[in-house]
Amino acid sequence: MLDAFSRAVVTADSKTSAIGGQELANLRKFIAEGNKRLDAVNAIASNASCIVSDSVAGMICENQGLIQAGGNCYPNRRMAACLRDAEIVLRYITYALLSGDASVLDDRCLNGLKETYVALGVPLQSTARAVGIMKACAVAHINNTSERKMEMIQGDCAAITAEAASYFDRVISVLS
């Protein structure tokens, strides 16, 4: 697992050069946006249960067969597993957002996820749809446009929102 600083060091080391130029500018930007990053992570973490339950409920509304007998969210233990998995994915996305690097998401969550879900018979299209709904909910919370408002640092959150959205897109891409 790497953070923005570790990634810069590893990159510079592989080129056998010192950190400088663009890498240093990127680290300065990372530090300058630190409070926005923390606010974004806090917005997601504070609303994680709502984000997860809304995304799974939205997925089920679009595919009622999931909760019918024989569906992948029936009986209750399968629904609980679905909610648990969605929470785990969201947690790793927040870790990636906090560190400014997707390696923790890739290494600990996405590596082998599709193969595991295929082996278990989990419908990938529905799972990807739930992640898409999670993305919309999380972005609304980061931008403070959801119904539940939070006290946040004022200013442009476009960069941090785009970064968060890219982590959700990464998960969707792996499932597709």
Gist of the model:
With 176 residues, the chain is an all-alpha fold. The chain has helices at residues 4-14, 21-32, 34-46, 48-62, 76-99, 103-110, 113-120, 124-142, 158-175.
Structural summary, described in words:
The protein is mainly alpha-helical and 176 residues long. It has 2 domains: 1-32; 34-175, Globin-like, CATH 1.10.490. It is 73% helix and 0% strand. It contains 9 helices and no strands. The protein is flat. The relative contact order is 0.16. The model has no long low-confidence stretch (mean pLDDT 91).
Could you give the topology of this structure?
Elements: H1 4-14, H2 21-32, H3 34-46, H4 48-62, H5 76-99, H6 103-110, H7 113-120, H8 124-142, H9 158-175
Helix pairs in contact: 1-2, 3-5, 4-5, 4-8, 5-6, 5-9, 8-9
Quick one: CATH class of the largest domain?
Mainly Alpha
Q: Give the overall shape.
A: flat
Rg measurement, Å: 18 Å
Backbone structural class: mainly alpha
Number of domains: 2
Secondary-structure element pattern, one letter each: HHHHHHHHH
User: What's the helical proportion of residues?
Assistant: over 70%
DSSP helical segment count: 9
**What does the main sheet amount to?**
none
CATH architecture type of the largest domain: Orthogonal Bundle
What number is the mean pLDDT?
91
- Report the portion of residues in β strands: under 5%
First-residue to last-residue Cα separation:
24 Å
E-strand count: 0
Low-confidence stretches: none
Write the CATH fold name of the largest domain: Globin-like
What is the CATH homology-level superfamily of the largest domain?
Phycocyanins
Organism: Aphanothece hegewaldii CCALA 016
Membrane topology: Peripheral membrane protein
Protein name: Bleomycin hydrolase
Family: Belongs to the phycobiliprotein family.
